[in-house]
Write a structure and sequence with these properties.
Blueprint (H helix, E strand, L loop, with lengths): L1 H58 L3 H33 L4
């Protein structure tokens, strides 16, 4: 009787080990698939970030550059206004207007 009980116990242990081995293998495969998907997503995100960084200087202006350019344009406009006023006064003197 004891040899039958030992054989049944061995069969149950073998079946349990087989089921456990299958579950472990299935879990490993699932984790590998998830890791592969995460790596693909990470690579895609890295590529998009690199594209964004490459396009950034063409689409946006730094605040300091904008301020510098605006100041330069304002100085040129002021100079043109001053020159225009001087020309207007010179013409007025030639025509006999304001002395």
């Amino acid at each position: 009787m004891s040899s039958i009980a030992v054989q049944i116990l061995l069969m149950v242990l073998s079946a349990t080990l087989a089921a456990l081995g299958y579950l472990i293998q299935d879990t490993r495969n699932t984790l590998k698939e998830r890791q592969a998907k995460q790596e693909e997503a990470t690579e895609l995100l890295a590529k998009e970030l690199a594209d964004f960084k490459a396009a950034l200087p063409r689409q946006y202006v730094l605040r300091e550059d904008f301020i510098r350019t605006t100041a330069t344009l304002e100085a040129k406009i002021d100079r043109v206004a001053t020159d225009t006023t001087e020309i207007k006064e010179a013409i007025a003197k030639l025509v006999g207007g304001v002395k």
